[in-house]
Amino acid sequence: MNDHQPLDLTIIGAGMIVHDLILPAVYHLQRLGYVKNIAVCGTRPSSLQSLKGNATINEAFPGQDFTPYPAPASAPADNRQLYKKVLDAMDPYQAVIVALPDQLHYPVLMDVLGFNQHVLSVKPLVLTYRHGVEIARKAKQRGLFVGVEYHKRFDRRALVARKNYRSAELGEFVIGEAKMIEPYYYRHSNFQNWFTTDCTDPFVYVGCHYVDQVYFITGLRPTAVSVDGVKGRFPNGKQAFMWANGRVRFENGALLSITSGLGYPDDGAGPNEQGLSMFFEGDDKGAVLKHNDQFRGVEYSFIKGRGPADKRFHYVNPDFFQLVPWQGEGYEPVGYGPDSVMAHIKYMGQIEARVARDPGRALEIRLAAIAEADQKGLLATAQNSYINELVQEAARLSIVNNGDTALIDYDPEPRVRLKHA
């Protein structure tokens, strides 16, 4: 019997991350036999038409397709709840990917679990610890796997760093800094409609990657967060934190500074600017780890402009996501981005394959498999990445209070509070 069960899969959301990462990864799983039917739920037929007509994806995955909801020719309607009809028509214990703005995750994830579906959410899972606890509790009651797409856990740099730190080859983490600046052109995208000061900020949106990565490497829990922001306005007039700087204190006293924003120059050679430096102490010696993530050691100058900014000179990133030749038709998605998406979906199929061999013990088998993933810590789950919800909650509390420090208590129950309240 197979070690995986092919699953039907629904993607809720049809935005940038679905074009750039999720749909290619899912299409590859489909042609490898891990995924059967694919549906994509959006709110606008135009977004789904754009996804269907993506020339790069169609060239890489010839003959593959998905079922769009709403249908391209459907009459104008409020489609925000359409995903529920799609989920209701699915068999239970299939796969769902939630790719929506941060503030929509909690209600949609709770709905997905209510339909008894395994789920993978883009990061962060939710914006408060309490909501994360509710999701984990509901998932456990029903034997459902909840994954979080912190794809930097699959970056080989992070995996090497985790091994070296946990084998005591680096000493103890004491101070570090990280940076993730996304492109300026994001300001002209659909970000205008949801990336507003009342909902999110750059620290929560992308800075969370590096909070999770440092926790993934060291296992140290954050205990205090201070985030301040620089506001600006989108072309549609809505106000947003365009830049943010945060400082995270960890339980051993270590500090991590994170700068994030929507402002990497469209004329710049990289797709963004990002990197991590960590300094360590031990045995009367210092140690250092540096990940210079925006260059990746590959430079190209093309004869024609490429990408949204129509640039000729690029720092090409071969590590996060690329479509490359392989033995099959079209192209294969490679990199830690698709590796992360595919690993979560494959694990859902492995769980259901174990259940198929012994259906009388279905709940017991599912809970054991979920606990196994929680303990291993490579796949980000609601249980093993919960510190991120505490950090996001603390970050939002801090940034709307002009950078006042928000403390994270773990006993008797985890909670967040302002230091000077």
Describe the protein in words.
The protein is an alpha/beta fold. The chain has 2 domains: 7-152 and 326-381, Rossmann fold (3-Layer(aba) Sandwich); 156-319 and 389-418, 2-Layer Sandwich (Dihydrodipicolinate Reductase, domain 2), CATH 3.30.360. Helix content is 34%, strand content 29%. It has helices spanning 16-32, 45-52, 55-60, 82-89, 105-114, 129-142, 156-166, 202-218, 336-357, 362-376, 386-399; strands at residues 7-12, 35-41, 67-69, 95-98, 118-122, 146-149, 172-183, 222-233, 239-250, 255-264, 273-282, 285-292, 299-306, 311-315, 322-324, 332-334, 406-409, 415-418. Strands 12-11-7-10-9-8-17-18 form an 8-stranded mixed sheet. It has a 6-stranded parallel sheet with strand order 3-2-1-4-5-6, with helices on both faces. It has a two-stranded antiparallel ribbon with strand order 13-14. Helix 1 packs across helix 9, helix 5 packs parallel to helix 6 and helix 8 (202-218) packs antiparallel against helix 11 (386-399). The longest helix is centred in the last third of the chain and has 22 residues, at 336-357. The protein is globular and about 60 Å long. It starts with 6 loop residues before the first strand and ends with a strand. The mean pLDDT is 95.
Keywords:
alpha/beta; Rossmann fold; 2 domains; 29% strand; 421 residues; globular; 8-stranded mixed sheet; Dihydrodipicolinate Reductase, domain 2
Short synopsis of the structure:
With 421 residues, the chain is an alpha/beta fold.
